[in-house]
Amino acid sequence: MMPGVTLKGPRYEIDQKSQAFPEALAHIAEPPERLYLIGNAEALMPGLAIIGARKATPYGLTCARRFARLAAEKGVNIISGGARGCDSEAHKAALEAQGSTVVFLGGGCDRLYPPEHFELFQRIVDAGGAIASEHPWDYPPVPYAFRARNRLIAGLADAVLIVEAGLPSGTFSTADEALDAGKEVLVVPGSITSETARGSNRLLYQGATPVIDDETFEDVLFRACGTLRRPGASSLEVRTDNPIVQAILAQPLDDESLLSIAESAFGKQGARKALMESLAEAETARVIARQPDGKWGPVVPL
User: Fold this and answer.
1) What are the CA-CA distances from residue 153 to residues 132, 218, 251 (Å)?
2) What is the chain's pLDDT, residue by residue, as a tens digit (302 residues)?
3) ∠ CA(86), CA(92), CA(95), 5° rounding?
4) What's the CA gap between 34 and 133, in Å, rounded?
């Protein structure tokens, strides 16, 4: 970025007392006292963090693009750090899918790093996303600040996807922050002979959730992020915080049991209507299906 060139867009300083301050960040171990932001303050919403190696392989870059696009197409906010490699590919894929994306910087928003991503950052702002930092506008991008900002990436996210990481890797700090916050850590497996996959595979050995194809990714994303467009849903959104859908995803249930759940959640007067609407919506979206024994159960991907 050339000296004196700054991002164009609305600027905000949001403290913890502001209604615009993300609730998710208010509950992390060390919440930021203030956020400095260029762009859309409403873009600071939970979603999926996608991170990986800066010196990424074509495999890592492809995975970052693939899963960021799939998530963004389903309305999931993509959160990352704007770095070279996997981070920037995730942001670009979100933009291409006309989705929302947020960058958390290590330095201030007027000291962009890496500077060659100025155009990408401006595209994010112009598309309704946000560039954010816990540091004042002109704060320099010093090394220790990047380790600290990883807690913000993990804190805002519902889940963290690691697409490629070697050993040692700064990616581990984001994974640790996510686990400390009770968030799910997802990992794309890599070749056991690849140096760039040693960290990723180690996380899998330690219990991270493997993402082995589009179907497993979608299943985990559906569980972690709550509201998604499922294939065949014709842009219909299915809410997994609906108590009827939650109950069916937990175990197959018959009509009588579901009506009882609907009465508890919506009252006896509106229970039957709410039940029928919920079943129709979730069945159309291929989230649930009527089983041979007559019960409703979750759809198992083929």
Assistant:
1) 10, 21, 33
2) 444 579 999 999 999 999 999 999 998 889 999 999 999 999 999 999 999 989 899 999 999 999 999 999 888 999 999 999 999 999 999 999 999 999 999 999 999 999 999 999 999 999 999 999 999 999 999 988 998 999 999 999 999 999 998 887 777 778 888 887 778 899 999 999 988 899 999 999 988 999 999 888 988 887 787 644 444 433 344 555 788 988 998 889 999 999 999 999 888 888 888 898 888 888 877 788 888 888 998 876 53
3) 145
4) 9
Amino acid found at 239: R
**What does the domain layout of the chain look like in residue ranges?**
11-225, 232-298
CATH T-level assignment (fold) for domain 11-225: Rossmann fold (3.40.50)
Query: Are the CB atoms for 230 and 222 separated by under 8 Å?
Result: yes
Residues 6+ apart with CB under 8 A from 68: 48, 50, 78, 89, 90, 91, 93, 94, 97
Residue-wise burial string across 189-221, b where 16 or more C-beta atoms lie within 10 A, e elsewhere: ebeeeeebbbbbbbbbeeebbbbeeeeebbbbb
Q: Would you report the helix, strand and coil content of the chain in percent, each value rounded to 5?
A: 45, 15, 40
* Range list of H helices, 23-84: 23-26, 58-73
Token reading at 104: 């958390």
| Alpha carbon separation from 118 to 110, 202, 209 (Å, rounded) | 10, 34, 34
